[in-house]
Amino acid sequence: MATLAARVRENIVLYGALAANVGIAIAKFVAAGISGSSSMLTEGVHSLVDSGNQILLLYGQSKARRAPDAAHPFGYGRELYFWSFVVAILIFAVGAGVSIYEGWKHWREPEPLADPMLNYIVLVIAFALEGTSWFIAMREFAAAKGDTGWWLAIRESKDPPGFMVLFEDSAALAGLVIAAIGVWASHAYADPRIDGLASIAIGVILALVAVLLARESKGLLIGERADPAVVATVRAVVERQRGVTAVNHVRTIHTAPDSIFVAISADFDDSLTMGEGERMIEAIEDQLRAAEPRLSSIYIRPERREDAAALSAEVKA
């Protein structure tokens, strides 16, 4: 029971966004069916896609928790990065694609709009729900980023759900504002085509968000290094060992948001015996795990400084 509660708390951003989007999607589709508004239909599709995205991210998190096995010795952490990339593609292909198509269709074949009051009521309710979800996502991400700037924190984040929901909710709020303007302007100027333009504008926003999220997810899927502070900590721990004369390089890669593989090349004192070197490496690994618990796999290679420098030069050439 405690584990279930912990998981709910861990995924509060996703559960909050999912609950909001399911309710909003239903309300928007009902309003679009009654009023004939293209931008409301677009917003309904947008909320439906967002609901599916949250389900995929929760699925990815569940799969990523599986323990390492013979086929995947470093675990399944990158499942989350894969599904995050799929989410970005869905936002672009379904969310943005349908929005732009519906807007173009409504521009070519405009339909007279019914009383907009229902649309306004749904938009206000949707804005309140989306705003609540956005506030939760912003609060959680702000707590995780600490003193780091917002944009840098997004670029350096290794946990996609946090910033993906934040971007999705921000795009949703912007879409609601545009939809409201489109509905109002269509009636104010007696031109239903304006509602179609609003739908296209929403699609463009979704496309831009999707491209940004796809770029961030692709970097994680390919493999990104750990935070420079983690690298500095690893280097400091190894350098202070009495039997280490130099640290040639420290290379890291995230295999999951909270799992880091590190490969270290170090020059050991030539006077050390094989047994002494083995015991020293074991002691270094223990100190590294104590200093940085996210280090799931540690590889330490004894290598002369001259050989490491020569190899590095060959790689650069």
From TrEMBL:
Transmembrane segments: 12-34, 80-100, 120-142, 163-185, 197-215
Cation efflux protein cytoplasmic domain location: 227-303
Pfam family for this entry, one: ZT_dimer
Keywords noted in UniProt: Membrane, Transmembrane, Transmembrane helix, Transport
Cation efflux protein transmembrane domain segment(s): 17-221
Membrane topology: Multi-pass membrane protein
Transport is among the record's keywords: yes
Matches recorded under InterPro entries: Cation_efflux, Cation_efflux_CTD, Cation_efflux_CTD_sf, Cation_efflux_TM, Cation_efflux_TMD_sf, SLC30A9
Cell location: Membrane
Gene3D superfamilies: Cation efflux protein transmembrane domain, Cation efflux protein, cytoplasmic domain
UniProt-listed NCBIfam families: CDF (TIGR01297)
Family: Belongs to the cation diffusion facilitator (CDF) transporter (TC 2.A.4) family.
Record's protein name: Cation diffusion facilitator family transporter
